[in-house]
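in:
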């Protein structure tokens, strides 16, 4: 019994000493802060401003990308964000350059179109680095935003990408254009779901056969509701400014 009591006293004293050390160094606060810093993906930003980010993924094809750019040019949409895959960028350098020359923001859509969560960090780093070099080689842009293939990720993937200096961008409104449900279905879905600070997912790959017909109506409909178009980076910057003001 004496030995048990002695151990109990020693344990309590050790805990008390640790508490004193933490109180002096502020370590509990540091640990709490680190615990709160969980890797996250961005779906939208909280804002009262009527702004949205139109985003387009491109992984394959040469029939839809340029007509999509033609629509944006005709509708005088100056701000949009394109997530380009590495292989597509190398296969279609002129279109990739056109995206950059039109002033649109360029992010990465990875290299091989496979779910990152199924692979180790070393594979993710390799694939993202390959895509980064391809995009930079063709457009001169070193992307800092990434939308993972299929939007797939988990906390480990997010942490790996954050460590590489990337911000992972998801979406709040999915047009489902890749399902080709009909032009009006795509338009109605976006106009019904879009809200201030939204990131809207669309595709400019050849798999999205109806986006060029739907896009003018989406643009007109959002403008009629008072929305302005910004890049994803501008959306994130606005959120940071608001958080500083608050």
């Amino acid at each position: 019994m004496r030995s048990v009591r002695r151990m109990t006293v020693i344990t309590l004293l050790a805990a008390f000493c640790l508490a004193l050390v933490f109180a002096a160094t502020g370590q509990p606060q540091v640990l709490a802060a680190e615990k709160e810093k969980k890797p996250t993906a961005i779906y939208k930003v909280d804002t009262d401003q009527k702004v949205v980010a139109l985003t387009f993924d491109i992984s394959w094809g040469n029939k839809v990308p340029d007509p999509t750019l033609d629509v944006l040019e005709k509708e005088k949409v100056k701000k949009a964000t394109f997530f380009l895959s590495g292989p597509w960028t190398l296969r279609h350098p002129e279109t990739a350059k056109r995206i950059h020359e039109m002033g649109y923001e360029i992010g990465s859509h990875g290299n091989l179109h496979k779910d990152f969560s199924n692979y180790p960090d070393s594979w993710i780093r390799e694939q993202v680095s390959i895509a980064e070099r391809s995009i930079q080689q063709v457009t001169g842009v070193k992307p800092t935003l990434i939308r993972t293939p299929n939007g797939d990720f988990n906390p480990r993937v997010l942490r790996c990408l954050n460590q590489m200096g990337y911000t992972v961008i998801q979406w709040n409104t999915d047009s489902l254009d890749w399902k080709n449900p009909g032009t009006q279905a795509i338009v109605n879905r976006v106009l019904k779901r879009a809200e201030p600070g939204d990131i809207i997912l669309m595709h400019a790959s050849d798999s999205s056969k109806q986006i060029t017909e739907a896009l003018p109506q989406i643009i007109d409909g959002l403008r009629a509701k008072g929305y302005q178009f910004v890049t994803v980076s501008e959306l994130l910057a606005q959120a940071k400014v608001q958080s500083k003001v608050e």
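note: Strands lie at 51-58, 81-84, 105-108, 145-146, 167-168, 173-174, 198-203, 228-229.
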